Inverse folding.
């Protein structure tokens, strides 16, 4: 990571057990309504997805390694999911677009109904059928380790949607806020140590603080 944690450089990627991994989903879990295809090879993501029985909402993540190594397979997964959660570097890489808005609009045409592009300390941009939604990052005074913030964001997003009565544009926007709030806790400690300490009430309080910070009262 750079001194301000805004940039990272991947030195090595070792697949280790993933080189021979063949995930088999137990029958008891194949009707799970909400599925998140985490950052693994796109062929494995497709293999998992093929085992699921008509999930209500499927989202995925990927990274530069897979985009460079298995571009067309990544595109195949994107075409089959409801939501894609990636960062701005990956959005530009997969489209070849320098402008992030143009990159997001192009990706949206590939199939996903929900596209979230994370921008680290600058928040996240959400694109739905009804347009863009921009959310700044929650201001964290003491960043300890940003590792896992993306996975925490995705987990919070999926968990919020799974607890909602229905998936609407408003619900997706609210899920993005909750996800960002949860990820802000993650960077305050190493690993999952901070997430183990917090309660539902801590998350609600941070979401409320977030709402106050981002409320726009425009007088004409």
């Amino acid at each position: 990571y750079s001194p301000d944690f805004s940039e990272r450089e991947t030195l090595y990627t070792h697949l280790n057990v993933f080189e021979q991994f063949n995930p088999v989903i137990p029958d008891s879990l194949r009707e799970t309504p909400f599925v998140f295809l985490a950052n693994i090879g796109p062929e494995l993501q497709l293999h998992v997805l093929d085992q699921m029985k008509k999930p209500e909402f499927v989202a995925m993540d990927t990274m530069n390694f897979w985009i460079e190594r298995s571009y067309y397979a990544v595109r195949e997964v994107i075409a089959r999911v409801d939501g894609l959660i990636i960062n701005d570097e990956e959005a530009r890489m997969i489209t070849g677009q320098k402008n992030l808005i143009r990159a997001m609009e192009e990706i949206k045409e590939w199939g996903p109904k929900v596209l979230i592009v994370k921008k680290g300390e600058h928040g996240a941009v959400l694109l739905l059928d009804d347009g863009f939604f921009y959310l700044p990052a929650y201001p964290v005074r003491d960043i300890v380790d940003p590792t896992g913030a993306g996975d925490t964001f995705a987990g919070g997003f999926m968990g919020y949607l799974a607890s909602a009565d229905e998936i609407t544009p408003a619900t997706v926007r609210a899920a993005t806020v909750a996800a960002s709030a949860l990820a802000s806790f993650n960077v305050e400690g190493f690993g999952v140590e901070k997430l183990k300490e917090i309660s539902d009430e801590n998350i609600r309080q941070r979401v409320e603080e977030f709402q106050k910070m981002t409320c726009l009262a425009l007088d004409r």
